[in-house]
Automatic annotation (TrEMBL):
Domain of life: Bacteria
Keyword line: Isomerase, Metal-binding, Zinc
InterPro entries: KduI, KduI/IolB_isomerase, KduI_N, RmlC-like_jellyroll, RmlC_Cupin_sf
Family: Belongs to the KduI family.
Organism: Mucilaginibacter lutimaris
Gene3D superfamilies, per database record: Jelly Rolls, pectin degrading enzyme 5-keto 4- deoxyuronate isomerase, domain 1
Pfam families reported for this sequence: KduI (PF04962)
EC category: isomerase
Protein name in UniProt: 4-deoxy-L-threo-5-hexosulose-uronate ketol-isomerase
Residues that coordinate or bind Zn(2+): 194, 196, 201, 243
Keyword Transport: no
EC number per UniProt: 5.3.1.17
Pathway participation: Glycan metabolism; pectin degradation; 2-dehydro-3-deoxy-D-gluconate from pectin: step 4/5
Catalyzed reactions: 5-dehydro-4-deoxy-D-glucuronate = 3-deoxy-D-glycero-2,5-hexodiulosonate
Amino acid sequence: MKVIHSVHPDDFKSYQTEQIRDRFLIDNLVQPNQVNFVYTHYDRIIAGVAHPVNQALRLENYDNLKAAYFLERREIGIINVAGSGIVTVDGRDHTLQKMDCLYIGKGAKEVTFSPGNEQESPVFYLLSAPAHTVYPTTLMTLEQAEKVQAGADETANKRTINKYIHTAGIQSCQLVMGLTILHQGSVWNTMPPHVHDRRMEAYFYFDVPAGQRVFHLMGEETQTRHILVDNYSVVISPPWSMHSGAGTSNYSFIWGMGGENLDYTDMDAIKIEDIR
């Protein structure tokens, strides 16, 4: 399991392209019949992908955790971003269609990922955080998710925000998760941008059309940098960093956080005119 260490904002100012990509970008996670994870030192968040094509995959334990099993002291949020799949938790099956979300609480011992049909294999995005309380395993479909309409056509940022794991949704210890779908003709996400010093955030970009890219913006508001990302890429955003992006086409992304609270609205807004 690759480990990503924390970075001080003063050090970040001197980073060149390859350093930024190495310290904050997670790519090549989607591999047939594999579960791949990266451990970060930002709120001890673990990000990964399970891609079962023609066999079931187990949520294995890792030496990094020093635990008896993966979820001994952790919780995990799972959102399927392709096809149909089945997540089995301690013997109980949960079917996830595209953009459905499953939360699994602390203490679940046996978790497996299986394909749901032969037409299109599922791609399960996985985000895990340390947990101190047991909350029940809960499935929420895309239709059941709380929805917020944001942005406008004239500013190219019209989008639908779907909230799954948060204060008023699926209950968790510290995970907050949801996904944003940009409407056709819109390319800007999270614009105007914000920061939240109380928690980190990770973006997982998906449904990026072949040949297209997203310019993910990060850094302090007066010292911005960018990472160019492809489909199925994760960008880790430290608490001191703004997070936004613009694509060469519309796309979707999953936002996930861990930290001090579960309040979706806990953010410090940045004025567009203050960005440098």
